[in-house]
Amino acid sequence: MPAAFFVVRATVSDPTKRRAFDEWYHGEHLPDAAKAFGVKKARRFWSVSDPTLHVAMYEFADQAALDRALSSDALKTLVAEFDRCWPEVARTRELLVLAEEFETG
């Protein structure tokens, strides 16, 4: 079964809040989400082309593991905490399934 990914795109419109958002995500949210979801890997990105765009990507072993996480109380808790801490930050979510992986060397 191919790996599955949960991608959360957040728009931090106020540049004065980016550092606090980054520290909170690094120190609290990403570790809490990775643990709650039981993911293989969790990654965060800031867009170079759009400095307001933050992307978090959680890698699951397969679609079934992703589905379990999305239907869990853990997700509801994480979303509620995000909303409490960052009510002004808009988010979108995407679910992806790995179609192909290519490595060189």
Describe the fold and architecture.
The chain is an alpha+beta fold and about 100 residues long. About 40% of the residues lie in helices and about 30% in strands. It contains three helices and four strands. The protein has a four-stranded antiparallel sheet with strand order 2-3-1-4. A hairpin with a 6-residue loop joins strand 2 and strand 3. The radius of gyration is 14 Å and the shape is globular. The model has no long low-confidence stretch (mean pLDDT about 95).
Structural features:
105 residues, single chain, four-stranded antiparallel beta sheet, alpha+beta, Alpha-Beta Plaits, 4 strands
- Quick one: CATH class? Alpha Beta
Mean pLDDT across all amino acids: 96
Number of helical segments? 3
Biggest sheet strand line-up? 2-3-1-4
The fraction of residues assigned to DSSP E strands is 25-35%
CATH architecture: 2-Layer Sandwich
Low-confidence stretches: none
Q: Which structural class do the helices and strands define?
A: alpha+beta
CATH topology: Alpha-Beta Plaits
Order of helices and strands: EHEEHHE
The tally of strands reads 4
| CA-atom Rg in angstroms | 14 Å
Distance between the termini: 24 Å
Shape: globular
For the report, how would you describe the main beta sheet?
4 strands, antiparallel
Count of distinct structural domains = 1
